[in-house]
Write a structure and sequence with these properties.
15 strands, two-stranded antiparallel ribbon, eight-stranded parallel β-barrel, 447 residues, globular, TIM Barrel, alpha/beta
Amino acid sequence: MPKKMHLAIDISYTHLDGRWRMPGSWTGRIYPDLDVYEEMARIAERGMIDMLFFGDGTGIPDNWAGNRDEAVRWGIGWPRHDMSPVVTAMSRVTKHIGFGLTYASTFMHPFYIARLMNSLDHVTNGRIAYNVITSNRPADAANYGFDALMEHGARYDRMEEFVDVCRALWDSVEPDAFVWDREKGMVVGDPRKVRAIDHKGKFFQVRGPLNCVPSPQGHPVLVQAGSSPRGIKASAYIADQIFARWPPLAAKAQHRAELDKWLVEFKRDKEKVGILWGVGLVVAETEGEAKARREGLLTMIPPEAVGPYLSHNSGFDFSNLPDKVVLAEVQEQIVKAQASPTGFVFRLMRDYGKDTVMTKKEFFEHGLRTATNYDRTYAGTSGQIADILEEHFEAGGERGGFMIVHPQAVPRDILSYVDLLVPELQRRGRFRTRYEGKTLKENLVAQ
């Protein structure tokens, strides 16, 4: 029997970077219309999707040429609301689908996040995932009082301690501590089941315990997206599911092997930790229609918006590039700036070679393909896309599945996934025909 893959959809960009105006998007609806999100949840649950996922950022991009004007003008990376209240509303019109929320351990305090995720897990009846990220975005850092980005390795050190504190807090009240005895008026029968954690670490000092009722999942599903060597190690320590970039087939096997090595090192069951490979998909009834829609991605944003996008998501200002760009030299500057070492320029070096020289115009033409997700979007019929997903699923070790990132136009694309792709994967025995678990955690480990 073939192994089944899991599917999540990243809907954090449905209103950003030009997607809100693409053919097939909602008309007459303006972000953050709650009805839109509730309808997305209903559609996705009809297709038995595992999870709707929200990435996040808390700053308006402002590191392109030292100001935010072009990002503000073209809607690059903003506006973004805290989506936890929206998830609450989405959970009330669904019963099974999970919801992933993102908060940066670089800036947040673990007690607040542990308490928030516990509360949301109760609201959703055990369907919450927490996407733990470090942040390489200067605009976000400035909003939390940081003058500069924290060193790359230190960000991961802080994240690991952050998760240690959260886990200790989630375990600080035992699952059976509450008795709610109406006759005696007793809430907790044995106070020893409620314990302080007395954490004193490099980054945090937290007494505890968490002042909450233990949640349905105990711990939310933890998601992490590290792809650098340090990031893969951190994801093995932290995550239940890894949200990974879309490397070539051979690199998928390499990523899986590196992750498994660290999982064994941390004495974790490597069979239970999946990788959700991030991929863009355009699915249509004919190949021609799908490919035409993929070409439409390149019209989402104007050339003026590409630089602000790349700069924000890399944490590095690309506005001062020379006329001739040497990729290795730019990557060296990115690393020195404590920006993302595995971002856009890293991928260009992987695909074209580190010593490649290109003009500034060519550099930003490549950037447009990245900003619109064109360079990691597959287009085809449901059968063609299913073939691609099966090949990559097998190359990546058949543990996990796919995070369908940044649909071109919503609701059209979610409807295409649910009505075209899912039935084809089900026909091949590669996707569930019903939700088997009661919680998100149970559904993500079910085969």
